[in-house]
Amino acid sequence: MRGLTHYLSGLSLATFFKPLVAAVAQGNLAILVPAVYAYLPDFLDFKVWKFFEKWDFHVDPAPQEPGLNRAPMTVKVSSLTPEERYRFYRLEGRASRIEDSGDKLSFTLTDDTGSIRVEALGRDRRDLLSALGGLEEGDAVAVSGYLDYRGEEPVFVAADAPHPMYVAERVAEAIDYAYEHGEARVKVENIRMIGDTYRRFLIDLDGENRTVRVVMGPIIALGGMPLEEEPVPEHRRYAEARTRHRFVKKYPKPTVIGGFSGTSIGFRREGDVVEEVFLPWHREWSHSFTVGAFLAALLYLALAALGSSLAAPLALASMLGYWAHVVEDQLGYMGSNLLWPFTKKRTPGLRLGESGSPLLNFSTALLMSGFIVANLNYAVPRPPIALPYGELLALVSAPSAAMYAYAVAKWLRQRGEAPEEAEEKAVEEVLEEEEEEIGGA
Amino acid sequence: MGPLGVVLWTMFGVAVGLGFSWMPGFHVYNVIALLAVTGGAITFIPQEAFPFFVLGALVSFAYSSVISTVYFSVADDTMIFMLFPTQRYLVTGRGHEAVLMTLLGALAGSVILAASMPVMPLILPFLRDILNQFITVFLSALVVFMFMSEWLKMGEREENRLKRFLKAWSQILGGLFVFLASGLLGFVVLNTDLLPTTVAYVRLTPLFLGFFGLPWVLVNLLSGLPVGEQDTSDEVGTDWRGLLSGVFGGALGGYMAAFFPLITGGMGALVAGHITSQRGDDTFMVSQGANRFIYYVGAFLFLFLPAASLTRGSAAWLVSSIYQPKTYQEYVYSIGALLLASGVSFIGTLALSKLVARIVGRWFKQISLAVAALLVAIAWALTGPMGVAVMLVAALIGTTSVFFNTRRSYCLGVLILPVLISMTGYTGVAMKLLGLGV
């Protein structure tokens, strides 16, 4: 479910506790704590745990210029070692030995640390000459591109993106590492360019052919809108790297890395094969009943130590709020690690609908809003709605019950869907959750 | 007053709204207040016609103010969430399309509003009696959620995990600073005579111009936002699903904002967008159109409900002090006037958008400079030199959100914080703490 639906559920559950509602009249807003607890599992993942994840492979195809937070980073010629091959950088120096065949421009760039041959092909030649305003012997030049080799000789290829081989080789290496060491976590950074634009690329894991494919896409705006029509030149658009060991492709669609942030992929060896674990830091320990109970117990102890009369109802409501989050997420595809640390893996969800499903979110939010109205109706001295409590609860639940019934009927029809389709939806679900975190302006 | 009078005064309101609201910095509330109260318009507008004049002005404002947001990056508090998506459209030459999508949302909003008016008297009084006592809870809940749901953009590339975490969290702390600083400024302006008491009805104007207008114009100028030729064809890149989803979410948010005092259209849209799980810029823009329409016009229309008159929003308060509609006939007229004004405003705004689109692509930098000067001039004209000073402080705080890479909507603290302080009964304490006497 979406964050606000969880949050609303927590608030709604709190209104079932009369002492919490009564406290509002005294200006006490403790009733918000269960709402906070209900959002906490995602908060812990996206605002805390994500930053403490340990990566075995940090794949940054386009390091950023310090202070400017955008690629390419300006480096010296001497820093272009073989390990830097294919990464996106910028060089500054003087041009000499210029050769221009009309389709290929090449020259030697010299800075205070050394020299390197620069090549610009096709569209890149045109763009480079246009950016430099022509090129003469001895001119000061700044060129972006990546290091490559012609035989043994290093060449700096003028480009507006890294070569996709950098990512392909490292992801393939991570898969082999996971086979040999049991597990590997890879962080693939995105490519942020000038003016808050991004170079989109995608990673496709082909388990059948033991191949990792990477395709460089267009420059896009933050929201994903492509900003250029010409495709990336063919010689730097596509790359593939082979793995030594078998791996299972769990998610049929390629992983797309665009604006906002990069992604994290886990690889875990299961028997004789490596399996992909998408966003391995999400919906693990934080989305468990055990952690919910533990955090509620901590709250109780803290409030009891302070002598608060609300300690018990607040802790109980907060635990229920936390659990409501776990249960609501379990209606979707990906599921959660329900009894961590006693369970080690996520328990797949009930597949009633994706977490971003408008139907599920709206029906749940409506139900929770209805509960709030029903409970607060009896908290005012002369209840404005003069219906017995049970009838009022039934009345406010009816629309949501009908929508849930529709979702269940849909689920019954789709029960036979292929496992890979379910896996795809599980990944889409978690991607949507991450997208939601991006928030508004 | 007969139907002809209703049409006449409504159209007069539409003309005033269309004439001013597309210009950056001109909020319809200020225009109505200036025209009606200080400009002496009341002397020639019959009292019973005044609600219809305001209704027309509000409807056209809900439509035409989108031009200012899309082309000049100047928003009010309800449009602050709109700026990122519309700027994306503007830089890719699709500003008119962004306007059109928002207008479609507003048009749908007007139909929904008109259709729902008959059932409102059956629901609203109950909800008002139940929920109004808990408004502090809902407002506080919204603020807490805004902070908890902040997306942390920074920190991913720091060298170790602790640095990543600290860098990321500097954004949340930055957001907190922006919220508190905005709130503090709002509190001081609203509770002291920093701005002359004679301009009480436009006291918020320099704050809004400073928080939601000037920073964007300055950022556009400094960053050299590449705005080129605009496509003015009447085509939208959306489908029925996106349209319906946007209208539904927007209407929901609009009703929330219209019904709950102090919850603005922007906040309502945020909540409804989450609840209805909206995706995509197109859906978002449609929803904002519907949301703002229902927020501004719906809140005002509650005034016409014969059995359950609710006074919501500045325009309703202003009108109710002059004339309170009482009859079912006026109620029915208001629905007709709403639809008429809506249709005319849709067509008028569409034409205005095409005109502005042709100009803005060519002289964006010059227009941005002119808009910055206009905002300063408006603040000066309405609130004097101190108003300009307040606007500049607000702009500084608004620009700080860019520095911290945090949500600009935290500037809504300017309204939320003083209201929360007031509703929880701590105004006196806060005044004492700030050394402001009492």
Poorly predicted segments of chain A? 437-441
Instruction: List the quaternary state of the chains.
Output: heterodimer
- Amino- and carboxy-terminal Cα gap of chain A: 21 Å
Largest interface: A-B, 57 and 56 residues
Helix content bin of chain A: 25-40%
Coarse shape of chain B: globular
Q: What portion of the residues of chain A fall into strands of 2 or more residues?
A: 15-25%
- Outline the low-pLDDT stretches of chain B: none
| Individual helix count of chain B | 17
How many helices of chain A? 10
What does the largest sheet of chain B look like? none
Give the overall shape of chain A: elongated
Task: Give me the secondary-structure category of chain A.
Answer: alpha+beta
* Class computed from helices, strands and strand pairing of chain B: mainly alpha
Largest pleated sheet of chain A: 5 strands, mixed
Number of domains of chain B: 1
Radius of gyration of chain A: 28 Å
How would you describe this structure to a colleague?
The complex is a heterodimer of chains A (441) and B (438). With 441 residues, chain A is α+β, with helices and mostly antiparallel strands. Chain A folds into three domains: 3-51 and 283-438, no CATH class; 73-158, Nucleic acid-binding proteins (OB fold (Dihydrolipoamide Acetyltransferase, E2P), Beta Barrel); 163-278, no CATH class. Chain A has ten helices and 16 strands. Chain A has helices at 3-14, 18-25, 32-48, 123-132, 165-181, 289-305, 311-330, 358-377, 389-414, 419-438; strands at 57-59, 73-75, 88-100, 104-111, 114-121, 140-150, 153-158, 183-188, 191-193, 197-206, 211-220, 238-242, 247-248, 255-257, 263-270, 273-278. A five-stranded mixed sheet of chain A has the order 1-8-15-16-13, with helices on one face. A five-stranded mixed β-barrel of chain A has the order 3-4-5-7-6. In chain A, a hairpin with a 2-residue loop joins strand 6 and strand 7 (153-158). Mean pLDDT of chain A is 89; it is low at 437-441. Chain B has 438 residues and is mainly alpha-helical. Chain B has one domain (3-433). Chain B has 17 helices and no strands. Chain B has helices at residues 3-21, 28-38, 50-72, 83-91, 95-116, 120-131, 135-148, 161-191, 204-223, 240-259, 265-275, 281-301, 314-320, 328-360, 364-403, 413-423, 427-433. In chain B, 55% of the residues are buried. The model of chain B has no long low-confidence stretch (mean pLDDT 84).
